[in-house]
Amino acid sequence: MEPGEFLAVLGPNGSGKSSLLKALLGMQPLSAGTVEIAGGRPGGANRKIGYIPQQRAIDEALTLRGVDLVGLGLDGHRWGSGVFGMAARRRRVAEVIESVGGTRYAKQPVGRLSGGEQQRLRVAQALVGDPEVLLCDEPLLSLDLAHQRGISELIDGRRREAGTAVLFVTHEINPVLRYVDRVLYLVNGQFRIGKPDEVMNTETLSELYGAQVEVLKVGGQIHIAGAQSALCEDEPHHHEAATGS
Amino acid sequence: MFDFGKTWDLISGLEGVQTGLLAAAILGLVAGIIGPLIVMRRMSFAVHGTSELAFTGGAGALLLGIGVEYGALAGAVVAALLLGILGARDADRDSVIGVILSFGLGMGVLMLSFYKGRSGNKFGILTGQILTIDSTNLSLFVIASIVVLAVLAMIYRPLLFASVDRNVAVARGVPVGFLTVVFALLVGVSTALSVKVVGSLLVVALMVTPAAAAARVTASPWKATVLSVVFAEVAALGGIVLSLAPGLPVSAFVTAISFLIYVVCRVVAWARDRRTRVAELGPGLVSVAAG
Fold first, then answer.
1. CATH entry, A6-194, from 3.40.50.300, 3.40.50.720, 3.30.559.30, 3.30.70.2190
2. Which chain A residues touch B220 with a CB distance below 8 Å?
3. Domain boundaries, chain B
4. Cβ contacts of B152 on chain A, cutoff 8 Å
5. Which residue among A25, A46, A109 sits closest to B219, beta carbon to beta carbon?
6. Helix (DSSP H) and strand (DSSP E) numbers for chain B
7. Which of B157, B174, B221 sits opposite A64 (nearest CB)?
């Protein structure tokens, strides 16, 4: 990946999207091959990586405000109590929260915020450490359209301004289609990578799924018909193909 | 009921009372600081389980004729590690704690039945014996507290991260598994300290209730910690002072004060939430409600 590149990672459940993220974070050893991320071994360079997780319900009573969540993204990995340097830390956190438009609710308990508000703070949390690479694990899941767009714009803005490479795992490409430089499509251990048009077409995806799928382009969006039926198949030739690749 | 003159005479006249107050003040600090982390990590029941195994350890030590506090410490540390490691998955944590807790309690009861010494010693493990702390005990108590606080100061920030936001903490390279084990050890040692003051049945009143009360009134981790320390101090010191004149068990007063603070915090939070909701509905509705 190039600095500033926006790579969307697509594929059905269980195709290895999360394993890819885990391997990049050094949490899963590789059976073969090598990984290099942010100029280092995976696991050794996690400080240079911003990570945006899926939106999940947070306990309403959790004693954690938006500013605390973002602050942990800045220096939560460092030892010590964090009592010193609090003023500078607070300024930096406030700046980043302002840049994602979260100032209004940053002092409220995170468990009481809406999913969209939480994800905005998640973006701030990932950006506050000035990452070289952003790993996004389905950050738009369960958000409404307006928030999907807001969050995607924030991520896109970051890579344009700071040249941060974005690896965006998603099962739905349309909310980010306009920002995507390249697509990595994973199915049963096989993959195709290239520009959206090169990968997201009937011929390539039918070959990848090993079954006939139809890629339809409607109003600037991409829809895949027939892919779901291919998911459950677990035939031997898929495995052979997988080990071969 | 509260006799000020008599209480003052007891505090100023008895060295044991002063030592007890000092130990309670130190414990208030330790319990108050570690409490919010216990609540965030949903470990209240684990703390209760740990304290019941401190009872087992204490009972075993009594039977063997070694210091109860060493037995309690050993029991609590082993229990905290077991619960921390075996019950790492949320799904079976509750049941693992229940299983270990009941077995440990049963073993403790068995060991006490073999003990032929003073029955006050038996009862003391369950309900605390703060006023029997002497100067050798006190120095052990102080050293253990300082170690707990020093380790907490070193790991506080990543521990907080791992406690409230595990997935992102893992992604950022925080050694979550290592911190779980270290925290379990700290919980074990703090529990053993609390057992001495309030007894193994009532440890939760000092290690969990003040922090749970603080969590009702603030969402800031820092403010919650400060409040939790204040609440724990009020409960621990207030409990001892109030128990002196009537000569009733310390732990009864400590738990009562702790519970009262919790109830007050819930009422405050409820009233504040209600006010915010009314404010959000707008002034028109308020006047209707008032009229």
1. 3.40.50.300
2. 63, 65, 68
3. 4-285
4. 81
5. A109
6. 14, 0
7. B221
Q: What are phi and psi of A109, to 5 degrees?
A: -60, 130
Q: Looking at the complex, does the CB of residue B172 fall below 8 Å from at least one CB of chain A?
A: yes
Q: Tell me which residue of A123, A166, A154, A139 sits closest to A56, measured CA to CA.
A: A139
ipTM: 0.87
Q: Where are the domains of chain A?
A: 6-194
pLDDT over 60 at A136, yes or no? yes
For B4-285, give the CATH class.
mainly alpha
Residue with tokens 């007890």: B20
Model confidence band, residue B282 (pLDDT cutoffs 50, 70, 90)? low
Total residue length of chain A = 245
Rounded distance, CA B7 to CA B14, Å? 11
- List, in sequence order, every residue forming a beta bridge with A216; answer none if it has no partner: A223
Over residues A18-43, the pLDDT tens digits come to 889 888 888 888 888 888 887 777 77
**Can you give the C-alpha Rg of chain A in angstroms?**
19
What are the tokens at B184? Answer: 């379990």
- Average pLDDT of the residues in B71-75: 93
Two tokens, residue A89: 């830390």
The nearest alpha carbon in chain B to A48 belongs to: B172
Contact A76 B220 (CB under 8 A): no
CB atoms within 10 A of CB B76: 33
Interface check B273 vs A, CB under 8 A: no
